[in-house]
Amino acid sequence: MQLTINSLSKTYSNGVKALKDVSLNLSNGMFGLLGPNGAGKSSLMRTIATLQEADSGSIFLDDLNVLQDKTKVRQLLGYLPQEFGVYPKISAERMLDHIAQLKGVGNKSERKELVAALLDNVNLSKDKKKSLGTYSGGMKQRFGIAQALIGNPKLIIVDEPTAGLDPAERNRFYNLLSQLGENTIVILSTHIVEDVSTLCSNFAIICQGEVLYAGQPDNAVKEM
Ligand code: ADP
Ligand code: ADP
């Protein structure tokens, strides 16, 4: 898969220029989006996730016109926003089954198998009956990833997933992310340089809506 972002710009109604002529090429693997708060990372991710319009520019996922074919993009997409709510009284297992059902994944027994595999993947099998309201921040993030993985997405977008996690939870979460298949584009936004250097094959630095650098972490160290 190839994600091609070309000259993307966005100015909010309050006059903030969140994206200025952003162009990036992403291939399969983990791509880091590094930048301080307010850089435009979430704006870019929400636009790729078809949740917000751009003023100009284009985004293509292979031949798919992302800004136009929203329904098709959403079928290929797993999105974990920076903050997401959970229904506190429902168990992880029931919630995943419910989402799988909404996404039209298989019959009851197929869903049961899928949910069990997802929970195992994110190391929540033993907590699957607990209600989501009792989950720690790290457990909630891992649940979020399981939720984002339903339906085998080819494009996975995770927005500052480790904010509020302790170091052990962060490592567990990253182990999980780095296992996500080779035929998938994973975009990870962060303001932590180390996240990018340990996890990502490619990355971009974005600041005040502009791409300051795009390339591989190893080369970046040499060039800076
Ligand atoms: P909605 O589309 O529901 O009206 P908004 O467009 O107001 O929501 O906000 C979309 C996202 O951007 C939310 O996460 C919100 O917290 C955030 N947001 C809104 N305004 C600002 C702002 N001025 N600066 C930073 N983030 C903002
Ligand atoms: P980041 O994810 O890197 O923190 P954002 O994309 O959230 O950056 O924000 C980029 C800029 O756009 C910031 O100045 C922010 O205040 C502003 N912004 C974000 N969302 C909105 C919104 N819905 N309405 C107005 N301004 C916004």
Automatic annotation (TrEMBL):
Looking at the record, the residues that make up the ABC transporter domain are 3-224
- At the top level, the lineage of the source is Bacteria
Molecular functions per Gene Ontology: ATP binding; ATP hydrolysis activity
Keywords tagged on the record = ATP-binding, Nucleotide-binding, Transport
Q: Which family does it belong to?
A: Belongs to the ABC transporter superfamily.
Q: Which protein are we looking at?
A: ABC transporter ATP-binding protein
Task: Record the organism.
Answer: Mucilaginibacter terrenus
- Which part of the full protein is shown? 1 to 224 of 295
